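Late entry, evening session. Most of the bench is empty. Finally got around to the prediction I had been postponing all week. Sequence below, unchanged from the version circulated by S.P.
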Amino acid sequence: MQAVDMNIDYTIIRSNKRKTIALQIKNNQVIVRAPNSISPEYIELLVKQKSAWIVKKLSYQNRGKAPIPPTYLPDSSLLIYGTEKKLCIHFQRNPNDNQVTITENEIHISLALIAERKSHDSSYLSAQIKKQLAKWFKAKAQYYLSFRLVELSSQLNITPVSYQVKRYKARWGSCNNKHELSFNYLLVMAPAWVFDYVIIHELCHIKHLNHSSTFWALVEQHMPNYLQANQWLKQNQAKMHW
């Protein structure tokens, strides 16, 4: 996926049989179907030109459902630890290492002065904000896993070979047949008990690399409210979009 103006993400599907370009909104996703000859620059321009129509269609699809994904722009709200907080931007000559600070109701992000001069460009500003947030999310996810994964591994008596933190587009975690785990750093947006569910879920996959009844029984044994955690992720998926 590629981020463009207004933080619209889109997927390109190319075909050598297609003669024209088409935009499709399906299951809260923007899909561009294009001939192989169409350049990425032209597609990006088209999406920008159609951004108002796309947002309207996404809003219609989300009516009564999940909210439109966050814009990652000043005064928008983001989930942090399961609570929505207002995004506040500060421009400084020399931002220090603590470029993201969380308070009870707000997320404060410090950007360099050059970003202020380009702040009229929403796609540029959004990209700079997301860059700082990505580093903060990853650091916080790594810190939480550094002790919580050890605690839950001991509780389940299941130990992974290794683990890593990264951003996935369509999953919260994974376990491979080598017993290596991966976790989506956007889980920092969720409450700790939901993050714990994903950790337990992936640990249980070390014993059962499937979603059989035996697997779910093991998950439930160590987290009786796993259904509520799973439901929380489904209900807030759009808010945790990147």
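Two things to note before I forget:
The chain has seven helices and eleven strands.
The longest helix spans residues 122-156.
Will write this up properly tomorrow.
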